[in-house]
Amino acid sequence: AHIVGYVSSVNQNEIGEDPLLELPGFKIGKNGMERVLDKRLRGKAGNSRVEVNVMGRRIRELSRNDSVPGETLSLTIDRDIQKFTADRVRDESAAVVVMDIHSGEILSLTSTPAYDPNDFNLGISHKKYDALLNDARKPLTNKAVQGEYPPGSTFKMIVALAALEAGVIDEHEKIFCNSKYEIGNTTKHCWKRQGHGHVAMVEAIAASCDVYFYEIAGRVGIDRIHDMAAQFGLGQKFDINIPGEKSGLNPSKGWKLSQRGVRWKGGDTANVGIGQGDVLMTPLQLCVMMARLVNGGKAVIPKILSPKKNARGNEAETEPEIPLETIAFDRRNMAIILKSMAAVINDPMGVAYAQRMRDKAMSFGGKTGSAQVRRITQAERDVRVRKNEEKPWIERDHALFVGYGPLENPRYAVSIIVEHGGGGSTKAAPICKDVLTYIFEQEKKQQQGTDV
Question: How far from 170 is each of 162, 218, 333, 335, CA to CA, in Å?
Answer without folding.
Answer: 11, 15, 9, 12
